[in-house]
Predict the 3D structure of the following.
Amino acid sequence: MPKILEIKETNRDMLFFLNNPMIDIDQKQKVMNSKIIVIPSTSNVNSDLMLYMQGTNEILSYMKSKLDDPNDITLLVEKGTGEVAAFSMLIIIGMFLVMNVAAPLFVNCLYDYLKSKAKKSKEELIFRVRLNIERKNKEHNSNIEIFFEGSADDFKEVIDKVKEISGE
C-alpha cells in the first residue's frame, strides 16, 4: 500500500479540543499543562460508550517513558470512553496535538515506537497518525496538521517535514 502524507494549515488548536463539553474540568486543567496531547480516534459502537483503539494506552505509556517529564503528555478522552481491541494490519494511532517546541523530539519517539511495533508483527503493518502542531505565534497565523498513513519506514518523511516546520 502506498503511503499517504497530507500537510495543511489548520485553525484547530488546544482550545478547539478543550471546548468539547464532554471533557471534564479536571482533565482540561491537566491538558493545559501538557506539551503533547493524545486524542484517540473514537467510534460509537453502541449508544452508551465511545471506544478508542487498543494500543492507545500502550503508546501513551511508551511516550511517557521516553520523555524527561511524563506529565508533558496527556490522554484527552471524553467521559464514558473505553479502549477496544482491534484486529487489523491498519493500526490507527490517533491524533496528537503537539506544541511546536516538542514536535521534533515527539516524532522521533513515535518513529521508534512504530518501528518496534512493526518488528514484532509477522504482517506488514500500516499506521495511521494525525499530528496537529501548534505553532501560532508572531510569525505564523495557523497551526499545521499532518495526516500520515503508511509503514514505519515511511514515517521518516514525517520526521523530515516536522523538522522543517519547526525550524530545525
